[in-house]
Design brief:
The chain is elongated. The strands form five sheets. It has a five-stranded parallel sheet, covered by helices on one side. The protein has a three-stranded antiparallel sheet with strand order 12-14-13. It folds into three domains: 250 residues, Rossmann fold (3-Layer(aba) Sandwich); 127 residues, Helicase, Ruva Protein, domain 3; 110 residues, no CATH class. Helix 13 crosses helix 14 and helix 18 packs across helix 22. By secondary structure, it is of the alpha/beta class.
Length: 506
Amino acid sequence: MTNYKKLIQISTLGQLKASGYQSRKVKDELRSNLIGKMKKGERVFKGVIGYDETVIPDMERALLSRHNIILLGLRGQAKTRIARQMVELLDEYIPIVKGSELNDDPFQPLSRYGRDLIAEQGDDAPIDWIHRSERYAEKLATPDVTVADLIGDVDPIKAATLKLPYSDERVLHFGIVPRSHRALFVINELPDLQARIQVALFNILQEGDIQIRGFKLRLPLDIQFIFTANPEDYTNRGSIVTPLKDRIESQILTHYPKSREISSQITSQEVRLADSTEISIEIDQLSRDLLEQLAIEARASEYVDEKSGVSARLTITAYENLHSACERRLILNKESTGYSRIGDLVGIIPAITGKVELVYEGEQEGPAMVAQKLISKAMRTVFGEYFPDPDRIKRNSPENPYREITKWFGRGHSLDLLSDMDEQTYRQNLRQVPGLQKLVSKYHKRISEAKQFLLMEFVLHGLAEYSLLGKAGLESGTQFKDLLSGMLSMPEEEDDEEWGGGYYEK
């Protein structure tokens, strides 16, 4: 193990030679340090969840092969996070020629400045040490990026200040790529880079050198390239030119979480909630399940553009909005503790509408209506995991566990649950529905009182999604009633026995 505490005390080239230090290529650093971590059983990419059997093994193989890499996947799939995590595989410190703008290796200086300094001072040439955190550069590809930005150009002001002719290489101003010598360089959204700019990267990837204007300049750059791209970009906004794709050795496909549990772990890790000493809020697992299922439904929805994808940021921001909806309710009612409700889901709609790209049919429905439909689908899917599937039960059968509830609404009763209702009123209203509390107690024993009322509310929403109850949106809440209410006037006995909950949803 390298003792960097002693190494970073070295300040001249002669001392560095005497120490026996040997520099190595950046890809060799990554490979060697990766092998060390793998042998110790250490996690290489911390905070990246759901890729243990897919993306991470591909990344490890690419790094062992010393490849430049492109991460290809839809938005919100941790591509940039993976790229940034690679910094931890670099050596902690490396020496450079002091004052060098290109991170010159003291043993093999790259720039004119570095070569001249060592030629002039020899073993007395000063060196400096840079931490691995300084060896990372990132550029977002946008249509306005130029070759000068990436590679460099002649600087007339430098030429005038130093009184140098344009033929002298010291008048060059280097771009971000040569300044990333002996480091990691990331280009995000590569297809957005204009084709003529992508061509400028050919030599760097294959031969490791650059060309600036008419200079006979060869800089053997040592860079680990990581590119990211969205498949949508290939058709909608741009493309990666074929010769450039051919020069990127490893293409690694990312993906969305393959299970609700993995998605929930990502959400829990990424949410950022404000600390509060005055209010205590608990978000139940049911609410979390609904949020994660909502994202799954969105990715399969006929209203959402499949090519655009649904970012993991949807569930993260939705969770934060759900927490804030509960917090707002508690503040308004001057309550210090609170439990999530199904009604709080109305607060996540703004987090959904900005995160999904709609197709034509979705635009016709409108973003808010699509969000409501996604919430409804999530409820229907999750309901069967908590209670018996209503579709598999004969509605008028004595064994139907929902019969007592639907009969009560069938007699003309209705129930209003307002979004900002205080806890006492909320519970009183739910207790009005006969059989509701008994149903929850039958299928969910030994649960807290707060969760019991949450499940009671969930039963009403679930029955509405299965067309056993009617559900109508109020200005600030939801009203539950019989499906046939307002359409047919029938004797109470006939309504109870023949129609059950009815089949019309308002």
